[in-house]
Amino acid sequence: MVTYHPVPEERVGLEFDEFLCLLYPGVSKGFMRRAIREGNIEIVGKEPRETRRVRMQDVIAVHLEESEFPRRVRGGKTKIEVLFEDESVLVINKPAGIAVEPERWNKQAPCITGMLLEWAEAQVADGAEAVRPRLVHRIDKDTSGALLVAKNLETERILRKGFEAKTIEKHYLALVEGEFPAQDGERIAIEHSIAHEPKKEGRMKVVETKGRKSHTDVWVEQRFRGYTLVGCAPRTGRTHQIRVHLAYEGFPLAVDTFYGRKDVLNLSDIKSSYRAKTGAPERPLMPRLTLHALSICWPRPGTDGEVMDRAEAPLPTDFARTLKQMAKVRPYTPPRY
Fold first, then answer.
1. N or C: which end of the chain has fewer CB within 10 A?
2. Burial class of residue 29, CB neighbours in 10 A (0-12, 13-18, 19+)
3. So what's the pLDDT on residue 12?
């Protein structure tokens, strides 16, 4: 069975694989390119090439059954919270506990990619123009906060160049163990090369040679006794960069299974007078990474960097609750000299 799709006027000029991604929004571009090369999807009468731009009179022939397309990733019950949107850019508030892309060992778990596809389909159902959301950076599964998304291919290219040129600024909040030594208003540059940890899959480490140069600016946002809320601005985009840099300097996240000492943060960990309720297990204050992507600032596409846009993600309830308890039971007292 062959399914034919004429090219509508509003999609004339799109690259062939881009056209297919809009036609089948739940299918990856990699799958589409393979299908083109193998002759399973074609522009009738034209040489198969994924970068060929579709024209007004073109007809697309799909020689695949519905069952032959890969199963789409799921968005789950959680819906996209939009922090910023214009014609080319979307910034969403990523919840903690949801991976950005399908997980290697649990591909059917909800992920941000699936949520974005479902968001795009809902927009079309409401009468909006079809878009193919494109992630231009990543944050860890258990990190919350602002995530930048391009709504078209040209914007994706512009934003990726922005990351390369370091014109896109990210600001994180991290609750760390220890009293970070920066003075008020002082920024400390942490510059250590980072590489994969060969004996621990998925983990990174600081290395002296053969690593990738990495730079994180760190400053104090709020002080507590034995803990510090620090602001972090990664100038490079290495995997786990903030977590690795802070841990190497002796200030691991208050909760970090990989690079810290705790899997969760309990009230009993910070309050010496805590008394557990009889027969009831203690509920953790913070059951995940104490890291939040607070804001992102980027040059508006089409302005040559002259106009900057910004979006900010409010602190999630668990993080805000933890900071409130910190201020209550571990207030900071400046040292006496």
1. C
2. middle
3. 84
The residue from 68, 98, 117 where one domain ends is 68
Same domain, 110 and 88: yes
What pLDDT sits at residue 72?
Answer: 60
Cα dihedral 302→305→307→312 (10° resolution) = 100
SS3 assignment, position 103: strand
Mean pLDDT over residues 75-91, rounded?
89
What is the C-alpha to C-alpha distance for residues 214 and 70, in angstroms, rounded to an integer? 37
Q: What is the mean pLDDT of the chain?
A: 90
Measure the CA–CA gap between 29 and 255, rounded to whole angstroms: 36
CA angle at 103 for the pair 99 and 106, rounded to the nearest 5°: 120
Q: How many CA atoms lie within 13 A of 249 on its CB side?
A: 24
Tokens of 46: 């034209």
Q: At 218, which CATH number?
A: 3.30.2350.10
Residues in the chain: 337
Q: What is the pLDDT of residues 39-78, one digit of tens each?
A: 999 999 888 787 888 988 899 999 988 788 776 666 667 7
What is the 3 state secondary structure string of 28-65?
CHHHHHHHHHCCCEEECCCCCCCCCECCCCCEEEECCC
Residue 206 included in any domain: yes
- The residue among 245, 258, 238 whose CA lies nearest residue 174 is 245
Gap between the Cα atoms of 16 and 14, Å rounded: 6
Domain identity same for 63 and 86: no
CA-nearest of 249, 316, 248, 300 to 78 is 316
Contact (CB, 8 A) for 58 and 43: yes
Based on the fold, state whether residues 176 and 27 are members of the same structural domain: no
In a domain, 222, yes or no: yes
Asked whether residue 18 falls in the same domain as residue 129, the answer is no
CA-to-CA dists, residue 280 to 264, 265, 277, 325, angstroms: 17, 17, 6, 20
Q: Which domain holds residue 30?
A: 3-68
Q: Mark whether 59 and 92 lie in a shared domain.
A: no
Q: Are residues 170 and 240 in the same domain?
A: yes
| pTM attached to this predicted model | 0.84
pLDDT per position as a tens digit, 103-156: 767 767 788 988 898 888 888 778 888 788 888 999 999 999 999 999 988 898
